[in-house]
Specification:
This protein is of the alpha+beta class and 397 residues long. The chain contains 9 helices and 16 strands. The protein has helices spanning 30-48, 59-70, 75-85, 90-105, 128-136, 149-163, 263-273, 276-279, 304-310; strands spanning 2-16, 55-57, 112-121, 139-144, 181-195, 205-212, 215-226, 230-233, 238-244, 250-257, 289-294, 296-303, 330-343, 371-374, 379-385, 388-395. The strands form 3 sheets. Strands 4-3-5-1-13-12 form a 6-stranded mixed beta sheet, with helices on both faces. It has a 6-stranded antiparallel beta sheet with strand order 2-16-15-10-9-8. α1 (30-48) packs antiparallel against α7. The chain is elongated and about 70 Å long. Residues 40-397 form the Serpin domain.
Length: 397
Amino acid sequence: MKQILLLFMATIAATMAQFDFTFPDYRRTSLGDSIDIASMKLLKEIYDGSSDKNVVASPLGVLILLSLYGSGSEGKNREEIMQLLGSNDYKQLSDSYSQLSRKFSSMNPSYLTLANKVLVSDKFSVTDKFSGTAREYDSEVSSIDFSEPKVAADVINDWSSKKTKGMISDPVSESDIDPATAIALLNVIFFQGHWHVPFNASETKEKEFNIDRSTVVKVPMMHLEQSLFYWEDKDMGVQMVELPYKETKFRMIVVLPNDIDGLPEVLKKTSEKGLLENVFRMSPPGADISLDMPKFEIRSKIDLNSILQKVGVSSIFQNGSTGIVKESSVVVSKALQEAFVKVDEEGATAGAFTGLVAVPMSSLSQPPQPIPFKVDRPFLYAILHDDIIVFAGTYAH
């Protein structure tokens, strides 16, 4: 039985610029709902297993490659993948993910790059069916000599660096490549967004951030006071605010626990019910939001072998799949992801703002007091396109 490497790379960079903005009509779909639950399950396990609670991941990259891998799998291997991905109809599932993959890969590369690549050992050949499925996922397929791990790692790293504009240039090392590898499935998602509502860099100040109930540090806090979509969920114990990007239908959702040490419980609850229910409840609250939010940069290297097994996908590491390469069954030996996020006010034009929400107000009335949204404790964030979670993470210190 030969080995297979699954590799996921993702990067996000938030910057500011001037673009026209059209008010999006967000749609909620069954695919978005299933990605929501699976993404939050993955994020919880990544957070729980990380010693550094500053985490960023692209669950979508993981789900796309699992869906692709499932096309060459059968039995328990496919069943576990389908269960995580929230489907009991594999053809419908594969069609949904291949359509999503083609849609994202055809977007403007100035702000979004999604790319899939299948690297096949020069000693093997992919099955006709898997090759056809890979094409449906808009995936490149090429041959490589895995018997020279350093050369193979260089090829993968070069591809990642080009697709992420140098942000993720060394996702694998020579030690990650087993010379016996038959095939590697690769995915990159790169997003460079521009805030619709810009932060003014001159208002960024060092302010207190509560790591826990007994530890306070100073971090650079950006400030914004505008009308933003907002929601409170008392049962989950959170406030939520939406920061839209200029790029149509992209937005960041910030989920702030009410309690300083409330993030683990929030992650537990979102892993059970997801985020979308609350996201689609968000609306203008009738007053401006006075937002203080950390400026941050996070890079995560994630060993997905244990993470996937914790969310119910273990068979692919133990049992061979026969429908991927012609000459042998394959088993997953390593699954990993490197992700990067940068959220700041770089490039902001002071005072440049196009109102997101207009709140009718009598000329004689006094404007309501702004609603404070002070992100001064560990929180959850997610970047969505429409109803699809593309990136998710936590900031804790």
